[in-house]
Amino acid sequence: MRLSDTLTKQKVALPDTGPIRMYFCGPTVYQRAHIGNARPFVLGMWLRNWLHTQGRDVKLVHNITDINDRIYEAAPGASAELAERATEWYFEDTEALGLGLPDELPKASEFVPQIIRFIEELIAGGYAYEVEGDVYFRVTRDPDYGRLSGQRPDQVEEQEPNARKEDPRDFALWKANKPDEDTWWDSPWGRGRPGWHIECSVMAEELLGPVFEIHGGGLDLVFPHHENELAQSSALGHDFARIWTHNGLLRFTGSKMSKSEGNIVTIREAVERWGHEAILVYFLTGHWSKPIDFSEDVMESAEARVDRFREVFRGESQAVGDWDEFAAALEDDFNTPEALAVLHGWRDHALLRRALAVFGLASLAETEDAPPEIVELAERRRHARAARDFDEADRLRAQIEAAGWEARDVADGFQLVPR
Question: Quick one: which of 290, 211, 283 has its CA closest to 47?
């Protein structure tokens, strides 16, 4: 399988053997995530699913940034409470997409001791310095700085203004606690908190090792976030990510999409309005590395595609479908628009169900109702989740699965799908 790599500007092949370890940057949790935030989450889950079908050992890490300037600004004096609440929102909203969850969902706040150790190593190596409680990375120590974003070092503008820095381009690894910031940690440099970029370097390396196969995220993260991750990890001699995948951003168009200012639609609003199947089909229509428009008309088209797939399963199964053609589209830069076009020509129910399952769309093949006793178990599980009794919810899920069904959480309750 080959994927477009931001660093080399070429398609790079994944190794033929061994595990595939992936780190996809998640949200900064201070409000409800919008539908654009779902794209890297969806891409990561799809890649994991596809690689699983190929028999590969895959681990997907999708982080939560719960220490960040935006959180402090959004909730002065209550940043931790807001971050916790917004994290729960994100889990609820992404779970409603029907794709399940990544293998690891680390929070930055869970890795502060490891972050401090990482910063200490950078200081010991001369790659970082402390100034009145702040710690900065020396950009001049990295002669290749700018290689990911394509900038020359002399083109890089100041990222975080501070007259005490040695160089305007230097970026923060640790920030001293300010009077209005209620959440802080002790460190060798005094009370404070990590900078944004160091959080992801540490979480990725702690959970995947100092070198891993894929680092993903939105195109807006190339600079400064991922550029700085690469610089600080490389400074310690870590190879870090072999392939950098940056998905294109959503372009919100039209005037009827949402009451919210800026015409932005949250994941939750989108699921409630169009359903998770239409959202996933919508994402399939655009190549992951390109921008994609989001509008009323686009979503109506996605709904029509969903109906066409359902119509296939209402008819008789026919031996029409070529798995190799479908696989070829995904193996060549995970070309989902081409794969989607292939699927629309299939009439083989078993083959189509198998392919749709890669994208979390096996529910389009549902043709039978679950027996009453399974529905009752699913209802009990829904109530357990609402009461935050997750142990009981997990027990009921296992019982449902043992009976040959899968309970999927959606915005209006649950779906029961034969396993």
Answer: 283
State the CATH number of the domain containing residue 23.
Answer: 3.40.50.620
225 lies in a domain? yes
Residue from 257, 304, 261, 306 nearest 280 by CA:
306
DSSP class per residue in 151-178:
--GGGPPPSS--TTSSSTT-EEEEEEPP
Nearest to 160 by CA among 189, 197, 123, 191: 197
Q: Record the tokens describing residue 183, joined without a space.
A: 């959440």
Instruction: Give the distance, in angstroms, between the CA of residue 228 and the centroid of all CA atoms in the same chain.
Output: 19
The amino acid present at 122, given as its one-letter code, is: L
**Which 3-state string (H, E, C) describes 40-94?**
HHHHHHHHHHHHHHCCCCEEEEECEECCCHHHHHHCCCCHHHHHHHHHHHHHHHH
Domain boundary among 219, 247, 275: 247
Distance, first Cα to last Cα, the chain: 28
Instruction: Let me know whether 382 and 238 are in one domain.
Output: no
Q: Report residue 320 as tokens.
A: 């029409």
Which residues of the chain have a pLDDT value below 70?
Answer: 254-263, 367-368, 410-412, 417-419
What pLDDT shows up at residue 405?
84
Give the total number of structural domains in the chain: 2
Element (H, E) at 283: helix 276-284
Assess if residue 385 is contained within a domain: yes
Q: Which residue has the tokens 């950009």?
A: 139
Instruction: Supply the range of the domain harboring residue 125.
Output: 2-247
| Predicted TM-score (pTM) of this structure | 0.85
Tell me what pLDDT residue 255 has: 45
Per-residue tokens: 25:
């940057």
Beta pairing partners, 245: 216
**Where would I find the beta strands (DSSP E) of 221-274?**
240-247, 250-252
Question: Tokens representing 405?
Answer: 């069904």
Measured on CA atoms in the order 76, 78, 80, 82, is the torsion positive or negative?
Answer: negative
Question: In the prediction, which pLDDT does 368 show?
Answer: 61
- From 182, 213, 247, give the residue that closes a domain: 247
Contact 100, 60 (CB under 8 A): no
15 within domain boundaries: yes
The answer to the question of residue 357 being in a domain is no
Distances in Å between the alpha carbon of 402 and those of 205, 261, 375, 395, 398? Answer: 36, 46, 14, 11, 6
Question: What per-residue confidence (pLDDT) applies to 54?
Answer: 95
pLDDT for the residue 159? 79
